[in-house]
Amino acid sequence: MKNEKCKITKPESAAYRLSDLGETGLLARIEKHFKFQKDTRLLLGPGDDCAVLRHAPGKALVITTDEIVEGTHFLMRFSTPEDLAAKLLRVNLSDLAAMGPVRPVSCVAGAGLKSGLPLSFIIRFLKKLKSEALRFGITVAGGNLAGARENHFYLTMWGEAEPSKLLTRYGAGPGDLIFNIGPLGSASAGLELLKAANKKNIKKFKGLVKGFWRPEPMLAAGRLLGEKKIASAMIDNSDGLARSAAIIAELSKCQTTLNLPEEAVSKELKRYAAVKGRDWRAYALKGGEDFGLVFTVPARKAAILKKLLPAAVCVGRVEKGRGSVIENYGSEISAFSHF
Asked: What is the residue extent of each domain of the chain?
């Protein structure tokens, strides 16, 4: 009888799947990976039924949750684990930024995963999630896993803030001006480029692709707007400027009127729109996933705002009435919707 050689697959190889390791094995790797010894706020991290953290006295907990779903927010054919991990953490940070001077503290993360997903993909995802957490000064305190037909990743994050300084979507009033800080339309154009899979164009307009995968949370701007009591209402721009303005109008019981100036979007987006033969305003108004801040400011504070945040651009005004109006744009607006 001949001796047969047994082929051994290394866990880090592309051929090694989640189904080979199993849930227990994956959880053990996760618990070992997420250690944050330097954070004294984290009393008990991954491995138990709950995470335990210290809560600063006199502070309010500010909590948000968000997720990214295959087929809705991304396609696996153009997504790296690093892209997904970075975006997942940053979109949650953007929610905290929209509440004003919030100090991010910690988060719990979870995923629904296909059993055939390579283990190497998950290991890379975990490494990037930890590096992003360290970059923004937070811990990953725990999470959850489940099998799924489509891959999806979710995260719940919390921070601390003084309740009196928090900003909401409810405070806009007639006479206020509407401002935006951060990109407009870049992420929507970036997703369009990724779906088209034209490598030449992806390289040519790499700033737009980066805008889709690496939104920069406006934490410093949000903190300043709250601490200086400049903004009257604020929202993170996740579903497009038109939708953001409409939400503020509805919750503040007023009318928002948008009028986009040329400087509202990047030169790169204008070049891309010209190549596609489209109005650049369409990307800015309808495109989601930019994760900048849209906020209202009393007119008397506009000069102070421009001095403190020169990158903020006035994109409209608040008036008496109801609903949202868009000036100098003839097409119908269909904002992003999950359903």
From this structure: 18-165, 176-326
54, 56, 58, 60 alpha-carbon torsion, rounded to 10°: -80
Give CA–CA dist 39/35, Å, rounded: 9
Cα end-to-end span (Å), the chain: 62
Instruction: Examine the pLDDT at 36 and tell me if it is beyond 70.
Output: no
- The CATH number of the structural domain formed by 176-326 is 3.90.650.10
Weakest mean pLDDT among 96-100, 119-123, 260-264, 265-269: 119-123
Neighbours of 247 (CB within 10 A): 18
- In angstroms, the CA 160 to CA 54 distance is 11
The values of phi and psi at residue 246, to 5°, are -65, -35
18-165 CATH choice from 3.40.50.2000, 3.30.2350.10, 3.40.50.300, 3.30.1330.10: 3.30.1330.10
- What pTM did the predictor assign? 0.87
